[in-house]
User: Fold these one by one.
Assistant:
Number 1:
Amino acid sequence: MSKKIIELADKLKSKIYSDYNAGKQTWFRTGGNAKIFAIVEDNLELEIILNEINNENFYIIGSGSNLLIRDNGYNGTLIKLGKGFNTIKINDNKLEVGASILDINLSNYALRQNIEGFEFYSGIPGSIGGAVKMNAGCYGSETVDVINSIEICDNFGQRKIITKDKLNLKYRSSKINNTDIVTKAIFNFNYGDQNLIKDKINEIKNKRLESQPIKNKTSGSTFKNPENLHAAKLIEEAGCKGTNFGDAYVSDKHANFLINRGSASATDIENLGKSIVEKVYKKFNIKLEWEVKIIGEK
Ligand SMILES: Cc1cc2nc3c(=O)[nH]c(=O)nc-3n(C[C@H](O)[C@H](O)[C@H](O)COP(=O)(O)OP(=O)(O)OC[C@H]3O[C@@H](n4cnc5c(N)ncnc54)[C@H](O)[C@@H]3O)c2cc1C
């Protein structure tokens, strides 16, 4: 299979690499190689590549801001959406956004167009595909509040529209299959006051700078907040703040953020996470659930 995909590279505009250092595509900046890494140009080439992959493993990644790839690498094709999925337009009173658009770029676009409700995306460093899959949100707003529907491409290369009610968007989760690639998101929107929109974006920026180690190599919140509780508080009270595994540290600023201080391996990060889960469970009898997606061979 991989040989066939590599052979396709000459015939396509998509960029296809073998034995690719995929860890560098993640915000942790560590982890193993992907057998194949494809940056897919557009819908037509996505269909061709998915047909070639057939029943073999593949996994779609966005900006890698919520992702850890194990040191042993990913034994399949990692797909990232490229230029052809990088458009935003207003169509029929809806905002149509390509899945590779960064959340912050959507937020900036909305600001320029006096569109309200997208300010929270200025605080999330992912792509729109990842935002839909994770129901990303912050400071009281989530993707579910603004989404209308999405376009997906399934593993047979078939494109379909799925409406919001079928997505089951809940706190940092959705019902989107791992084999469904979000290619486009369609949002409802209202116009608002540009100054108020700008103020809200600045407020979010300041809050994040104060409370999160956003300049570090991190994947943001590592664990989901258990109902009515804060994972960061549980982690801190279980005595994990500042602890480490090699160069993987629990942030001093925000205990739910794990940081690669330099040369942490993906194993260091995963082991640090596992030790947090154990300590929190021992102290509070609560099992933290990973928010960060971990892929690759054990
Ligand atoms: C500093 C920092 C702060 C953060 N703060 C927040 C926050 O406040 N709120 C929040 O919700 N998150 C936050 N995150 C986590 C992360 O930014 C979000 O989960 C984001 O939505 C992930 O998007 P991504 O494009 O980086 O996806 P990736 O990390 O690449 O992938 C995450 C998941 O989305 C899937 N995915 C990606 N693209 C697609 C697609 N096109 N189709 C289908 N599935 C896809 C992947 O398969 C994977 O399961 C933060 C991360 C960092 C590093």
Number 2:
Amino acid sequence: MSGLIRNEDVAYVRENTQIDAVIGEYVQLKHAGGGQKKGLCPFHDEKSPSFNVNTTKGFFHCFGCGAGGDVIAFVMKLDHLSFTEAIERLADKIGYQLQYEESSGPSRPTVNKSRLIAANTAAMEFYCAELNQAGAAQAGREFLQKRGFDKAAAEKFSVGFAPDQWDALYKHLKSAGFTDEEMNTAGLIKEGSRGSYIDRYRNRLIWPVRNISGDVVGFGARKMASDEANPNDQSPKYLNTSETPVYKKSQLLYGLDLAKKEIMNKRQVVVVEGYTDVMAAQLAGVTTAVATCGTAFGDDHIKVIRNLLMDSDAFSGEVIFTFDGDAAGQKAALKAFDDDQKFATQTFVAIAPDGMDPCELRMAQGDQAVRDLVARRIPLFEFAMRVVISKYDLNNPEGRVSALNQVAPLVGKIKDASLRPEYVKSIAGWLGLEIEIVNAAVKKVAGKSHTPLPEAPPSNVNLKDPILLLEREVLKVRLQFPELVLEWNEIEQSAFSYPPYQFIRELIDSNLTTSILDVASAASPEVASLLSELLVEPVRIDGEVSERYVGAIISRIREVALSRQIAELKSTLQRVNPVDEAERYGTLFAEMVAMERLRQEQKVRALGESSV
Ligand SMILES: [Zn+2]
């Protein structure tokens, strides 16, 4: 934390900064007479200018959205900076050295942020020049060329090269007047084995990472030496700057400095996976592309983006993720049902054919293909449902019914109830089922999906009942031996008849990242203690827990669940007139037959596998 900037300094910076010059970097301003200038407001969407700057008094005001203030307020609001950061930025611009007052709080680091940014900027310039040198840099140039990036592209993104030497950057920055402490704090050098400083990045292609304001705050660096050529080099393929006073990876988005204005104008942001994907997408005309820097897309990134897409007080705009459709992307998509969903209805997913990333897609099919990829985005909810459905063979009724059982609870989890009927229609279309059947399935689980938990386990329930013992056993093996439970997702939603068990099942299904115990204790102490019980209680088999045993109990629980469902269907069928409602009768009957077949299958498997 910085100390306090002296009041005199704040006043000096404010007085010596041309407000129209600063605002003019973001907004095109036209003279409007009387020391006034006008332009399109950067804080809300508008077609005729209502954003006014009073250049003599040093204030701005927008008559459209009401935003206003002095130059410091403008920089804070536009670039989402703290007051101190805004002053530091403006002071840098006019070349003024700020003085800090001693604060009683945590002491100010001896290295100030503007020196760190200066060191990073000098390093970037050094790396850029190195990319054009003979020798090792050749590999870097070839890497770029192979991915469809010419010299102009490399220059646009200031891609550089760290030479294959121990201390080339260190010597260069030293001669430019930077101290060891400054370079070390910036993460540019590290202590070598002999106690002297060496460069952190060597023989790597370098992408400078800028913050939202365009300051160079760190680097991403890709290893060039192949593992075969250099088996001793165990370093990771990509190195990123570790946390520094100016590099906060949880908030940084690569490419955001270039994309910021476009994101605000188009009210769209496209999140891709890596540095080359950002380059490819932006060069292909997807000018709103950004990527995280060596970390997962998290809450802080959402905040940054939300601020840019905030329209007065409401969030409006689209966030599009390009997933390659792999397991990680699918998990992330399914998690969408668990988050607060504030963001979810504006979240979309774009998947390239053959799982190509934007960089590969651009190489294979050109710029238009990358733009098409983004244009073909689908809503996150739809994507997540299709992921679930894709696991089933829809050519047979069993597959369709199982898919329906898995996907129906997801509809119930959509918080915006007005969206649910749409998804019921879509699911009916994807599965080739009647809308009523999908609707019934959704309604059936909707009541159960937020099973209100009994304060204490119901006293009239006999937990020694063989069916409840079975349910408990299945949960135990799932929790204790997850690697043996291959068919967890096949188990019918109705399989757990005891509400606390059903609750635990939902916890297992919905919390992919957070510790399940944390979630359970947040729900209630009873659930937490039941969960920890299940985690430690011995499995009811002598000897080793085998895949065979697990398969048997899962088949058995499915058989029980299917029997229940069949009984329900039978009773429905009795209420349907086979003549008047022939079509509905036929569908229900077919469904029942399919379930019966599935039940028989499970029964045979349960018996076969348990005859150990
Ligand atoms: Zn405005």
